[in-house]
Amino acid sequence: MPDIIKIDNLKKNYKKIQALKGVSFNVAEGELFAYLGPNGSGKTTTIRILTGLTKSSGGEAFLNGHNINGKGIEGKKQFGLVTQIINLDNELTINENLDLHGRLYGMKKTDRQAVIEVMLENVGLLERKNSLVKELSGGMKRRLMIARALMHSPGILFLDEPTAGLDPEIRRKLWSLIKKIQQQGTTIFLTTHYIEEAEFLADRVCFLEQGEISAIDSPANFINSVGAWAIDLFHEAEFVTRYFKTIEEADSFTSHAQDGYTKRRVNLEDAFINRTGRRMKENGTAEGRPARMASGHSHGQGNSNVHGHSSHSGHENSNGGGC
Amino acid sequence: MSKCFAVYLRELIILKRKFWRQIASMSVSPLLYLIAFGFGLGNDLNVGGRPYLEFLIPGLIAMGSMVYSFGIATEINVARFYWKIFEEFQAAPVPNIAYVSGEVLAGITRALISVIIILIIGFISGVNLSYGPGFWVAVLLNSFLFSSLAVGLAMIVKSHADQSLLSSFLITPMSFLGGTFFPVDKMPVVVQKILYFIPLTHASNAIRASAYGEKASGISYLVLVVIGIVCFIFAVNVVNKARD
Ligand SMILES: Nc1ncnc2c1ncn2[C@@H]1O[C@H](COP(=O)(O)OP(=O)(O)O)[C@@H](O)[C@H]1O
Ligand SMILES: [Mg+2]
Question: Can you tell me the distance from the alpha carbon of B178 to that of A151, in angstroms, rounded to the nearest whole number?
């Protein structure tokens, strides 16, 4: 698949803050790309630059071949945008909000009416078509924003923290909707600070920290680089997680363990903790413990990772494409 | 063109949703001025050989069309800073000129509604003036000028508080000095010279002369046209300033 989003050395400085320190990556057509990072890491800034809401301080980006700094308005038809902050017209009905969007994108009346029906059906809001937006719940507003962003059939959908602040059940419903949209052929650029959201949804995950990309890869590759099985236990008054390539190794370890422990599959959060641990040590802000990743050999002292203080010297992670 | 209409249509729907509230609030200030200055000063007062009420109504019209067309800035600020709807326009393939035209049209529409309210209030108070084409052209030009100015300023302010400040320093002084409540030619010569550069003075002149059935000065129309176009071009060029 060709790359539908291309970003090269994108930078953004607000007066004193360097919000983006030169990020580069590409997103393939049809991909669900998760941009994962803590609050303030620069996720929204990236989306705002790509969608023309904010000017970049340097670098280039292309959406489906259109330079984002280009003069024409053709580039703006390439994407749909669901901003982090809800931006619906509260005093207007659902139908009016969508109809105005269609008009802004130059859609004909018959098209608008047909597409509104389909979109509302898609996000489960058809019965509420004539309700005022201010009568909707938070989850409904998100779904309406997604419907609105897709009305003009863009190739790319930007979702800025679409599930932040929603309760778990509604979040899962939104996940299904997002997957469905991807299956219908839309490339999705999703930002989140929920690791499990990125793990569950994304084809590739990009870790963003303080305006810099630390790694890009698929969730599976990230997880495999840590191990397959994890054992959480309390060891010498500290919470420790140990990673193992196979379940046999994990079982062999637990047969020696005395205290209570939990055995589970390794997840993306483990990979994230490994990386931030390493970063912290590199920055000299925290002392890394002499710990190693489980790399298939024996269990024991050298095999543990302590949350927040760990580093790894095992196999270097396969940091995919362009970071 | 249709995109400009979309921007306009949105403002119309919002106006429609709070139509009666809007009408009520647009009626309050002309009523107050009429009671305070019109009736309060008494009907004996003559200005230029006419009852003061006949002088006042065209002044209120000039002022009302200015204040309510300028009021579109408040709507834009609410959309921009509070609802963040402005981002929906910025992300959409809408040329700046279409956006500005839509908002300016909405400002003019508000101004016209306020003018009609004042005309009705005037009619009820027994003021009969002539409202021919010269009158309406002056009202439209005045509204066009101040809507365009409002849209432009709404793009460059950083908060709604800034906008209110501009209102207090720009619009309020003009309301009182621009030939609305008393004739400019009664002022000291220096002040007259200064007031000559205020667009509202020309709007008041043109609106009042037409309402009296006299021929208004062509210069006043020209000034309104020129400043109006300058403000409109300014507005189109600062839309991109609204990005940070
Ligand atoms: N308009 C702005 N003015 C100044 N600083 C800003 C502005 N917007 C964002 N920032 C700063 O840029 C950094 C990145 O912010 P943001 O992109 O919103 O992060 P995220 O979306 O990942 O939470 C933060 O330090 C934030 O304070
Ligand atoms: Mg954000």
Answer: 48
Q: Note the pLDDT tens digit of each residue in A30-52.
A: 999 999 999 999 999 999 999 99
Q: Hey, CA dihedral for B68, B74, B80, B84, is it positive or negative? A: negative
- Residues A255, A207 share a domain: no
Count the Cβ atoms, other than its own, within 10 Å of residue A188.
23
pLDDT digits (tens, 9 = 90+) for B169-224: 999 999 988 999 888 888 889 989 889 889 999 999 999 999 999 988 999 999 99
Report residue B179: phi and psi, to 5°: 70, 25
The pLDDT tens digits for A146-185 are 999 999 999 999 999 999 988 899 999 999 999 999 999 9
Select the residue of B85, B91, B92 nearest A89 (Cβ to Cβ).
B85
* Pick from B19, B108, B20, B18: nearest CA to B64: B108
Please count the structural domains in chain A: 2
Ligand 1 centroid to Cα of residue A166, in Å, is 22
- Which has more pLDDT, B147 or A226? B147
Kindly give the distance from the C-alpha atom of residue A42 to the centroid of ligand 1, in angstroms, as a whole number.
6
> What are the DSSP calls for B52-76, one per residue?
HHHHHHHHHHHHHHHHHHHTHHHHH
Domain with B145, as residue range(s), is: 2-243
A12 C-alpha vs ligand 1 centroid, how far in Å? 10
Please choose from A10, A11, A13, A14 the residue to mutate so as to test ligand 1's pocket, defined by most ligand atoms within 8 A of CB: A14
| Weakest mean pLDDT among A119-123, A318-322, B67-71 | A318-322
Q: Are residues A210 and A227 in the same domain?
A: no
Strands A156-160 and A79-82: what pairing?
parallel
Domain that holds residue A262: 223-318
Query: Has residue A80 got a pLDDT over 50?
Result: yes
Closest among B206, B215, B48, B18 to B113, alpha carbons compared: B18
Q: Number of structural domains, chain B?
A: 1
Ligand 1 contacts CB of residue A19 (under 6 A): yes
Q: What is the pLDDT of residues B68-118, one digit of tens each?
A: 999 999 999 999 999 999 999 999 999 999 999 999 999 999 999 999 999
Is the Cβ pair B13, A96 closer than 8 Å?
yes
